[in-house]
Amino acid sequence: MNARPYAPTCVRHPDRATGLSCTRCGRPACPECLRPAAVGQHCVDCVREGQSQVRPVRTVAGAPVAQTSTPYVTYGLIAVNLVFYAITVLQSGSLMENYRSSLFLRLALIPSLVADGEWIRLLGAGFLHWGPLHLALNMFALYVIGIQIEPVLGRWRLLSLYLVSLIGGAAAGMLLEAPNSIGAGASGAVYGMFGMIAVVMFRLRMNPTQILVIIGINVFLSLSLPGISLWVHLGGLVAGTLATLGVLFLPEWLRVRDAETARQVGWASIAGVAVVSIVVILVAAALLS
Known about the structure:
two-stranded antiparallel ribbon, elongated, 61% helix
């Protein structure tokens, strides 16, 4: 009496006999558990292990390329600014004189009131605008720059750099503007984005002449036109530029070779600029008190 030859079974489905096997690990596997490979076929376990060992492609800032296709942060920041503007219009009953709304009066940057403890004005003022033209100019700049640098910097870095620029502008305003001056607008953060894109272009070895000319024109307008907070603009520009230099250039200057360490250095740079800005704010508040 002849015995039936042994038929191997699938390692994931013991009830299924199979004559196939994984060309990577050699284990028997049924057709359902095999995937085509460059050479032969791999079982799903080997495919999963191989995918886990593949390093994601990253930008020069360390952001995963796969997660930067849609500039959600840029769109989100524009949406928040539009919502704030809509609220001030509804409260004031005026498209042009929205600055009469209670929200505007509650959040506008007034250094003397910040020194009295109204710290929310430091962030809130960056989402207010003096009428539709002011809003349109800032949102246009935010959009044009944001969609270009968000894929390079990554979502969380762009958001962090934007907020650091906003705080840097507020810090300069607290220290150098008149105590009872009233400031509002995303201009400080937008100027920070001017600095960001200039640094990105230097890092990618692109010609930065155009953006440098735009920065120069905007600084000239800030100096020439009345009612524009020059110091808030310059504070945002300096904060955004320094923080982005830390992200894109400091690891190279420190000769950091490990990618994870380089990303940590970049985040530390952003945090460092934020801390300096907060210290300036506290000093200015103490002087005003």
